[in-house]
Amino acid sequence: MQRAKDTDRAGLELLDALPTDGPVLGSVDGGVATVTLNRPEKRNALNAEVQGLLPRVVATLDADEAVGVIILTGADPAFCAGVDLRELGAGNTGLVLPRTRRGPLPEHRTPVIGAVNGVAVTGGLELALACDFLIASDRARFADTHARVGVMPGWGLTVLLPQAIGVRRARQMSLTGNYVDAETAEAWGLVNQVVPHDELLSTCTALARDIVSNDPVAVAQLLDTYAQTSTTTVDEAWSIEADICRAWSKEMLDPANVEKVRAEVMARGRAQQG
Q1: 191 within a domain of the structure (yes/no)
Q2: Ranges of residues in the chain whose predicted pLDDT is under 70
């Protein structure tokens, strides 16, 4: 089973390992990490340097017990305009080659919330799709321009985009290259919620703190279960969930802890129902 995370501290070694300037920034506050693409003058395009740094920063945060949630965003005005076309046009075709099954992100056990503050285009859309769920600013826009550029997706777009919005809408986005605004993205299921631009990070942070307040071992196991059940057949997914449930009930379920948190869970539920 997954090991628990101590989200009450952020060790000095972790803070020292995170970049505070350059094209990728990292910070941690109370168990919530924020990773920011920081090439605003290039609309946070994914050049070779960013593609090298971003997975390392995310992996560093994912490995540290002080971090319970990672928020991924871009420096205004964009989330990510995709692969740096200037570098690609100069012959660096490695920029678009397949990476891990999470595309431009490494495999991770820490939830990643995408805070989409502006355009998320092509490789930037794939980066957003690699997050576990998305909250969008009302300034967010989404497009897949692979066909306009003459490049094929290799970071999971034809898998993850249909999962989010259905295959027919995914085909429409990919074949036209047209932009989808934030409200349409929410209606289609691409993003979970659209909020005013100035409230984006505070909304994501509040959701992150809700996640951090839960049993971290259970959060990690749920994330892993979703990863397993979303990439197979329906019948196999049922079997996977059942096997995980049996193993958890045998090894991890603590009735005394359930009784301990029961009143708190019920009170929180009543408060959220108004």
Answers
A1: yes
A2: 1-13, 15, 92-102, 274
